[in-house]
Design brief:
This protein is of the alpha/beta class and 501 residues long. It has 2 domains: 370 residues, Alkaline Phosphatase, subunit A, CATH 3.40.720; 89 residues, Arylsulfatase, C-terminal domain (2-Layer Sandwich), CATH 3.30.1120. The chain has 14 helices and 15 strands. Helix 2 crosses helix 10.
Length: 501
């Protein structure tokens, strides 16, 4: 048999491959997309067949869909701190809006601490020094000039966001404070609103940095208030149903803060059915507006050949009442406020939809991502990875804990750390703090330190219309659930004092 040069070359190549060490496994990318104030009932995967979210539907068709996912605190800064760090707000110190995340508290990119990764944060931050690169990110693209008064003293308050400069390039003129306010931006044409800007910047990042391992966060403001935008007329108010608990107003056993919230929201947004339908229709328009840009980002991920090696997470920082109990925004422990969409796609694990019915908490997001990226979690993380349960297809029921922290209960130390205030110095009529447990059996207890508490049986009363807390036949249930909260407080070093009123 004749052996030609091509055969010799081929044999040498085979030999070299056999002797060479195995190629290092490609490190997975992370695309983390999240929104602001998006109620869970805003996608087909969560039971809404009327709203138009084809791109989120497409993502959901390839994802683990967590049907009952919960925030750790239903307001922006505290929940964002948890999503970024894996710590409860009372641990990180971000107990209320506009408290900066301490530099000593590590975000996910800082925990991973891998120079091979290029990390980027695009969009709303709301964890301090809004428009300035920080917390381990290599690329920073900002959209908000709403928090200038909260910048630290070393930051220039005349600096403006990337979105501000983008609008200047397009010929727009800011107001006399040199700002483009949220209402101004929401009234712009579709192609100049914030979602389109973030879409453009995310695609630019993927095109320029997608050839190296990346961690990319894209945070949309929408569907957050002011609750209007370029797609206001997409949905007819007559076709948008009111919540089933719209007529369930707070009763004498419900917290005083709820009564006040109903009065405030009805005054601001209108008390009639039609006004609430119009509000909900515009809110849905904002969700669809965001969905269009999410679709463009996912399409780019596909066209660049990056989708097969990219973990995709989609969630929101809290929900919205949007007419439930005739309330509008967040800040209460009702399901509409504390439940959010949560999708997780990892092509290495699952290429079709899997529905997870058991309750999960956003405290588990950071350890779950670390697990998927083959990283050991730090010992201080307060959640756990969901991956073992997903792989074993045996998802155990868990108790879920949610907190609400009133600024009145906290103070700032000389070191700039948020700490519990002296109880004796707190005005007893000030807004309360809460601790809530949703048990694996479906009971929901919210204990207040200065207002009425609540107990619901979510199995029998999913719309939370009947507060059972003050009924004698449920005393034992209240005691058992209170013990769960106290044990959780002990485990997480939460020393807030609660009173079962």
């Amino acid at each position: 048999m004749k052996i030609n040069h091509l055969m010799i070359g081929g044999l040498l190549l085979i030999g070299l491959k056999a002797c060479s060490p195995p190629a290092e496994e490609t490190k997975p990318n992370l695309l983390f997309i999240w929104t602001d104030e998006q109620q869970y009932f805003t996608m087909k995967a969560y039971g809404n067949d009327l709203i138009q979210t084809p791109n989120l539907d497409r993502l959901a068709s390839e994802s683990f869909v967590f049907k009952k996912a919960y925030v750790v605190q239903p307001v922006c800064t505290p929940d964002r701190s948890t999503v970024m760090t894996g710590l409860y707000p009372h641990t990180s110190g971000c107990v209320a809006n506009n408290i900066a995340l301490p530099e000593s508290v590590k975000t996910l990119p800082e925990i991973i601490d891998d120079p091979d990764y290029h990390s980027a944060y695009l969009g709303k931050w709301h964890l301090g020094n809004e428009i300035f690169k920080q917390q381990g990110f290599d690329t920073w693209v900002s959209i908000e000039d709403n928090y200038i008064q909260y910048y630290t003293e070393d930051r220039n308050r005349e600096d403006r966001s990337d979105y501000h400069h983008w609008l200047l390039e397009k010929g727009y003129q800011p107001d006399d404070r040199n700002r483009f306010g949220r209402s101004y931006a929401a009234r712009l044409p579709f192609e100049h609103c914030k979602p389109k800007f973030l879409e453009e910047k995310a695609i630019e990042f993927l095109e320029t940095k997608g050839n190296e391992p990346f961690i990319l966060y894209v945070n949309f403001l929408e569907p957050h208030m002011p609750f209007f935008g370029p797609l206001d007329s997409l949905y007819s108010p007559d076709d948008v149903p009111l919540p089933d608990n719209f007529y369930d107003l707070p009763g004498e056993d419900d917290p005083l803060t709820h009564h006040e919230k109903v009065k405030k929201d009805r005054k601001q947004y209108g008390p009639s059915e039609q006004e609430f339908r119009e509000l909900r229709a515009k809110y849905w328009g904002l969700v669809t507006q965001m969905d269009i840009s999410v679709g463009a980002i996912l399409d780019k991920l596909e066209s660049l050949g990056l989708a097969e090696n990219t973990i995709v997470v989609f969630t929101s920082d809290h929900g919205d009442m949007m007419g439930a109990h005739q309330m509008v925004a967040k800040g209460v422990m009702y399901e509409e406020s504390v439940r959010i969409p949560f999708l997780l796609k990892d092509p290495r694990m699952n290429k079709s939809q899997r529905i997870i019915e058991e309750r999960v908490s956003q405290i588990d997001i950071v350890p779950t991502i670390l697990d998927l990226m083959d990283r050991e979690p730090p010992e201080n993380l307060q959640g756990k990875s969901l991956i073992p349960s997903l792989r074993e297809e045996n998802f155990p029921a868990e108790d879920i804990f949610i907190e609400w922290n009133s600024r009145n209960d906290y103070a700032t130390s000389d070191m700039g750390i948020t700490i519990l205030a002296d109880v004796d110095s707190i005005n007893p009529e000030s807004s309360p703090s809460l601790r809530t447990v949703i048990s694996k059996e479906g009971w929901k207890l919210s204990l207040s330190n200065r207002d009425k508490s609540q107990l619901f049986n979510l199995n029998d009363d999913p719309l939370e219309t009947t507060n059972l807390f003050y009924r004698e036949e449920y005393r034992e249930t209240v005691e058992e659930l209170t013990a769960k909260i106290l044990e959780w407080q002990k485990l997480t070093n939460d020393s807030l004092r609660l009173l079962a009123n």
